[in-house]
Amino acid sequence: MTRVQMVPNGPILIEGPVHIEMPDGSVVESDRFMVAVCTCQRSKNYPLCDTSHRRCRNLKRAS
């Protein structure tokens, strides 16, 4: 069974490898043992997480 973990204010962690089908029909694949899927949609590597959610969270704290 594939393990999926929801991280509060962060990505969705999925045991890899994964094959992600995007709404436009394109496919993103990763053969990593653990894949972080972006939920904030700020990642420059979307749909894969690049930790942009951390920068956004830190900016909110500084305000």
Provide a descriptive summary of the structure in words.
By secondary structure, the protein is an alpha+beta fold. It has one domain (about 5-60). It contains one helix and five strands; from the N terminus they run E-E-E-E-E-H. The strands form two sheets. It has a three-stranded antiparallel β-sheet with strand order 1-2-5, with no helix packed on it. The protein has a two-stranded antiparallel sheet with strand order 3-4.
* Residue windows where pLDDT falls under 50 for at least 5 positions: none
Number of beta-strand segments: 5
- Count of domain modules: 1
Radius of gyration: 13 Å
Strand order of the largest sheet: 1-2-5
Q: Count of helical segments?
A: 1
Strand content: 25-35%
Question: Major sheet: size, sense and barrel closure?
Answer: 3 strands, antiparallel
What is the helix/strand order? EEEEEH
Q: Regarding quaternary structure, how should these chains be classified?
A: single chain
Q: Characterize the overall form.
A: globular
Mean pLDDT: 89
- What distance lies between the first and last C-alpha atoms, to the nearest angstrom? 42 Å
Q: In percent, how helical is the residue content?
A: 10-25%
Structural class: alpha+beta
